[in-house]
Design brief:
The protein has 412 residues and is of the alpha/beta class. It contains 8 helices and 24 strands. The N and C termini lie far apart (69 Å).
Length: 412
């Protein structure tokens, strides 16, 4: 059964009287083409009356689509009990609050729940859904900024555009698929207990200055499962420099490690350099135990600033930390790929440090920037470095995509 309700028709009058249970009930309000007169707007009482009438039809699947522009005032939803419903989807184009489910109400058959654009006490709601298998949340705000999921049978969890989240606590012993897209603003905690996860995608944007090192600010952190056979799960970090110097912050490593909710073998760094020295930042990351002990492949993607962007200023402290003489035990590292290599002295220093510290390194792929591609001296310097490490295969690509040299740096 599908009901399409217009703003000029009384919503309650469109619901037929109770009848034998229906397999599917869809209620869709069309988007208004212009401003709706105030007397035709609906309020909380009318919407909740509509939901109660829908619940009396006892559908197996329930879908509600409510566009922006039809509600007068703040919308507060009282989600009634759908006794037979195995699937409930509430798709809203406006923010509302789902109030606490009344005591004694339980969605005893519900297996799939999808909510969007609302604020709710998720922990309390899930406690009334004992058979839930799939949970999808889009643009949902959580009580006290805590995303708490404790669901013994949950198998798939998706959180899209989660905002204003300070704490994440997930307990899902049979969860197999996890997709998270979060925006975190303050000091936060993350706890994920899901030992059976097979497929995961974790994207977290970090706002504020709580994850900094030297002049560098960590902007985004992602953890992704391998997409195909033979590929490895990967940890991605996106960072940019600042005009400020933060030094070695005590909680830098802690803020990163808490996002390592699953095993990975590839570290991929995306650095907007703005002509800053990035060696100290990379070396510090590689020295984190949870990274260096498992990293088999390292990818460094260097993005140069546009001409109008301000670069590294004189007397900048981006190279003030003593990193070039450090030794890191990269005992699992087998392959390195650097894209956008300019051939600056500090970049060669980092390259030599990695070669020195990775005893089983097999292959390095160097993709040169346009400036480095045009410099025979810089290409020759790369070859000279790799001749010292004859057991390492190196592949050097020009900015045009053509290969410049390969196989233990023998020129082609």
């Amino acid at each position: 059964m599908e009901l399409r309700l217009g703003p000029r028709r009384p919503a309650l009058g469109c619901i037929p009287p109770p009848s034998p249970a229906v397999p599917l009930l869809q209620i869709r309000f069309p988007k208004p083409r212009g401003r709706v007169p105030k007397k035709q707007l609906v309020d909380t009482d009318r919407v909740n009356s509509l939901l109660r009438a829908a619940a009396r039809l006892d559908p197996e699947e329930f879908f509600l689509a409510f566009p922006w522009g039809l509600v007068h005032g703040l919308l507060l939803l009282d989600l009634p009990c759908f006794h037979r419903a195995t699937s409930i989807e509430v798709q809203l184009d406006l923010y509302c609050t789902i109030r606490c489910v009344p005591a004694g109400v339980e969605f005893s058959a519900l297996e799939r729940l999808s909510l969007s654009n609302c604020t709710t006490d998720l922990d309390a709601l899930l406690s009334r859904c004992p058979l839930l298998r799939t949970l999808r949340l889009t643009d949902v705000r959580f009580h006290n900024n805590v995303l708490s999921v404790n669901s013994p049978l949950l198998q798939e969890l998706t959180v899209a555009r989660g905002k204003f989240i300070n704490h994440v606590n997930i307990v899902a012993p049979v969860l197999t698929q996890l997709t998270m897209f979060l925006k975190i603003f303050h000091t936060h905690s993350i706890s994920v207990l899901a030992p059976m996860v097979e497929k995961f995608s974790w994207d977290c944007y970090l706002y504020g200055l709580h994850t900094t090192f030297g002049v560098w600010i960590l902007m985004k952190l992602s953890l992704k499962t391998a997409e195909g056979q033979g590929q490895l799960s990967s940890l991605h970090m996106h960072a940019s420099p600042s005009t400020n110097f933060y030094g070695e912050t005590d909680n830098f490593e802690q803020q990163i490690v808490k996002h390592m909710i699953a095993a990975f073998s590839v570290l991929e760094l995306h650095l907007t350099t703005k002509e800053h020295v990035y060696g100290a930042f990379v070396v510090h990351l590689l020295g984190i135990n949870r990274i260096r002990c498992v990293m088999q492949r390292l990818k460094v993607n260097l993005r140069r600033p546009a001409e109008k962007e301000e670069g590294c200023l004189p007397h900048c402290r981006c190279d003030s930390l003593n990193w070039k003489s450090q030794t890191i035990s990269l005992t699992s590292l087998e392959e390195v790929e650097i894209t956008g290599f300019e051939g600056e002295d500090h970049e060669f220093d980092l390259l030599k440090l990695i070669l020195r510290c990775a005893p089983i390194l097999k292959r390095i792929i160097m993709k040169l920037s346009q400036e480095a591609s045009a410099s025979n001296d810089r290409c020759a310097k790369i070859y000279n470095i790799f001749r010292v490490y004859s057991s390492v295969e190196c592949y050097i690509y020009l900015s045009s995509g053509l290969i410049h040299g390969s196989q233990n740096c023998t020129s082609t």
